[in-house]
């Protein structure tokens, strides 16, 4: 988050910068500590997106956006193919809130 920015504003900005998508709706789910060795928080949001614009990401950031269905993502996670911790946390939170 940038100075003076709250988590929701940061999530909206990051979504637009890194994917080019503008959120129609942004739902805050929860924050968590990604590691026990830090007090840095990771915030989880679910977005319903509207239109795609131009990305503004840095070269070191996300390189590709792939749109998949909720069912596809759920299958990949439940089959054990997805190993990324933050993705698994976000999925579990979204599932528990009825987004899947």
UniProtKB/TrEMBL annotation:
- Under what name is this protein listed? Nudix hydrolase domain-containing protein
Keyword hit for RNA-binding: no
Question: What is the organism of origin for this protein?
Answer: Candidatus Marsarchaeota G2 archaeon ECH_B_SAG-G16
**Domain named Nudix hydrolase: residues:** 1-95
Q: Which GO terms describe its biological process?
A: nucleoside phosphate metabolic process; ribose phosphate metabolic process
Kindly list the GO molecular function terms attached to this UniProt entry: hydrolase activity
Cofactor section: Mg(2+)
Alphabetized UniProt keyword annotations? Hydrolase
Q: Which PANTHER family match?
A: NUDIX HYDROLASE DOMAIN-CONTAINING PROTEIN, UDP/ADP-SUGAR PYROPHOSPHATASE
Q: Which Pfam families match?
A: NUDIX
The major lineage groups are: Archaea, Candidatus Marsarchaeota, Candidatus Marsarchaeota group 2
């Amino acid at each position: 988050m940038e100075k003076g920015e709250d988590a929701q504003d940061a999530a909206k900005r990051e979504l637009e910068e890194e994917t080019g998508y503008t959120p129609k709706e942004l739902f805050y789910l929860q924050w968590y500590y990604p590691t026990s060795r830090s007090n840095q928080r990771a915030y989880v949001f679910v977005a319903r997106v509207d239109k795609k614009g131009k990305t503004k990401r840095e070269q070191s950031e996300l390189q590709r956006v792939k749109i998949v269905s909720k069912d596809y993502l759920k299958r990949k996670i439940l089959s054990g193919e997805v190993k990324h911790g933050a993705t698994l946390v976000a999925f579990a939170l979204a599932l528990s809130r009825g987004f899947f």
